[in-house]
Design brief:
By secondary structure, the chain is an alpha/beta fold. The protein folds into two domains: 2-366, no CATH class; 367-416, no CATH class. The chain is built from ten helices and 24 strands. Strands 3, 4, 6, 7, 9, 10, 12, 13, 15, 16, 18, 19, 21 and 23 form a 14-stranded mixed beta sheet that branches. The protein has a ten-stranded mixed beta sheet with strand order 2-1-5-8-11-14-17-20-22-24. A hairpin with a 2-residue loop joins β1 (72-77) and β2. It is globular.
Length: 416
């Protein structure tokens, strides 16, 4: 692991900053705290958690969600996991759910085989290289052949300290004919100085397996968020990315599906809400490498005040991926004269026997809609919230009920 860290750091030093997206010129890596271990030891029950952390997660409603419908929960504060729990009946089926640091020690051969070797690579971008050098914490999930996990697993990542950098690594391996739903939650308190988040997610979807990866990202406005998420999908496998980006001052996030096996499928559903002083650059990528593969990307964004939301995506159909089909649909709802919504789609079709579609729409809330709802007794804010929730419904419906309610609250029309 040390050797891999040093190789990644060497790549980081040589690689330039991305030349697209938000302005990154003011990032000073020398001022970032790259590792800070919480004082508390990792707990197995909420009662054993430190009072300040427990109070924060009680406000977020995490303990109730765990009790109600989660199979397991891992919680990280700054650079290390502070809580880890997994229901015994799922352990007995051979599922492994550990923090990443423990997995390196307990399952070295598995980690060595998959960790940043074929999916996320340091060469992908400068922040992936930085992550490869500095990663700490994160979660390791292994689902054996034929096992279908009926309840979701959640990983929650909390940035607690000022000027902190968080570099968790999530590695998911779903073997043949298995099934898994994973939920990722992120948040941070507001500080006057910027924090940096540069995590990585690697998902390996075996033949006939299905993995759903859901993200609710509600970082505070001082967080700079640069995640690298990629999945390798085998024959008849399926990956579903569902993400909600609501926080951070700046985000660059483009989950990528590499469809390696025949009839592999990927779905990308994302909702982005950019308000005052936010620059959220999000999207999705699909690379078709095998025949009869399918990808669908649906991106919806809401922009208010001087916020900026950009969809940036790429679909590539390689030569030999006969019968591949892809569709991209981007919709933007603008709620302010200074708000900006951009769409940057790219389709690279190298196979003649393939189908590709792209559609983009940008608009404002119609005065007639507002008038109609307000004539029925709703205030202007209530009417606008109702329209916005209807606009986002196709994505919100993909989240479990408890999280759908949380998203609806996060996207309420505010003056912030």
């Amino acid at each position: 692991m040390l050797k891999r860290r040093l190789q990644a750091f060497e790549i980081f030093e040589k690689m330039p900053m991305p030349k697209f997206g938000p302005d990154l010129s003011n990032i000073d890596f020398e001022k970032v705290i790259f590792y800070k271990k919480p004082k508390a030891k990792k707990a197995k029950t909420w009662q054993d958690m430190p009072k300040d952390i427990k109070k924060t997660f009680d406000k977020l409603g995490i303990p109730k969600k765990e009790q109600k419908f989660l199979a397991g929960l891992g919680t990280q504060v700054d650079s290390a996991m502070v809580y880890q729990n997994f229901k015994k009946r799922w352990e007995e089926k051979g599922i492994i759910f550990e923090d990443m640091d423990t997995a390196v020690q307990k399952y070295p051969e598995l980690v060595k085989k998959y960790f940043m070797t074929r999916c996320v690579l340091p060469e992908n971008n400068k922040f992936a290289a930085l992550h490869g050098a500095l990663w700490s914490g994160g979660l390791f999930v292994f689902v054996p052949k034929g096992v279908r996990l009926a309840e979701p697993i959640e990983g929650y990542f909390f940035l607690k300290s000022k000027q902190m950098g968080q570099f968790e690594h999530t590695l998911i391996i779903a073997e043949e004919d298995s099934q898994l739903s994973y939920i990722e939650g992120c948040s941070a308190p507001q500080y006057t100085r910027d924090c940096l988040h540069s995590g990585a997610v690697e998902v390996f979807v075996g033949e006939g397996a299905k993995v759903s990866y859901l993200t609710i990202q509600n970082w505070s406005r001082n967080v700079l968020n640069f995640n690298t998420k990629r999945a390798l999908v085998s024959e008849n496998g399926r990956i579903e990315w569902v993400s909600g980006s609501f926080g951070s001052r700046m985000t660059m996030l483009y989950p990528t599906s590499i469809l390696q096996g025949k009839r592999a499928k990927s779905t990308h559903l994302s909702v982005t809400a950019a308000c005052k002083d936010q620059d959220l650059d999000t999207g999705g990528k699909a690379i078709h490498q095998a025949p009869e593969t399918t990808s669908n990307i649906i991106a919806k964004s809401i922009v208010k005040n001087n916020g900026k939301a950009s969809y940036r995506g790429m679909v590539k159909v390689e030569k030999g991926a006969r019968g591949a089909k892809t569709s991209i649909n981007c919709e933007n709802l603008i709620l302010g004269k200074k708000a900006v919504a951009n769409t940057y789609p790219a389709l690279k079709i190298e196979e003649r026997d393939a189908e590709g579609y792209h559609e983009a729409k940008t608009g404002k809330i119609a005065e007639e809609q507002l008038f109609y709802l307000m004539s029925r007794g709703l205030s202007e804010n209530q009417a606008m919230s109702l329209i916005v929730n209807g606009f986002l419904e196709p994505v919100i419906d993909k989240f479990p009920v408890e999280y759908g309610v949380e998203i609806a609250r996060l996207i309420e029309i505010k003056d912030s």
